[in-house]
Amino acid sequence: MAPGHVAYGLGAQYGLRITAETVMAWERGTALPGERELMALAGVLWCAPGELLAAASTLREHRLARDIAVDDLARSLGMTGAAYQRVEESGRWRGNERQAVALCDALDMSAAQFLTATGRNEELAELLTRAVTTRWQAYVRPVDKLVPLDRVLIQDVLEQLHADYQALMVSTLSWNTTGRDRAGTAGDAGREFLDRVVEEFWRTAGI
């Protein structure tokens, strides 16, 4: 179908006044259709809305990929449609832990995808950095509140990451040498480890 045919179908079948130029912009990725437009586009092209999306990275994209209405999803979470809509628009999660787990179940999201979609990756990285460099036990609860995973699993992962980091520091730092290169090596290794700490967290958690 040419863009003009798609635009005609959107108007004839769904009453949307969309030009062929707009359809071409959607194809190029220079413009994005709204939710109603995406649903209509899927209808015209005889496919599921999720097939028109790249890998979902926001809550809205995850919901559209599952073809779930805002009100239906909000109801399953025990939220009002307006409250959930504000979450999608802001990209910040304001629900509780139970609702976070329910959201992941409803949208078939992993814990890692949940944090990406709700803009919490930086916050997790900060908590993990503190956990591996200080007392990891103090960060079990904060990470548990942030990530929809079992607390025992979080505890085991933080303990393992802390042990890995401490072993790394011991193996790269020697107090028997007076040169600065060895200390610099330790610092570089430590920074490299911290850069990978979030990735290691998900890997160790089996996500």
Automatic annotation (TrEMBL):
What the entry lists under InterPro entries is as follows:
Cro/C1-type_HTH, Lambda_DNA-bd_dom_sf
Coiled-coil region(s) at which residues?
none
Could you tell me which residue ranges the HTH cro/C1-type domain spans? 59-114
Q: Which Gene3D superfamilies match?
A: lambda repressor-like DNA-binding domains
Q: Report what the protein is called.
A: Helix-turn-helix domain-containing protein
Q: Which organism is it from?
A: Streptomyces mutomycini
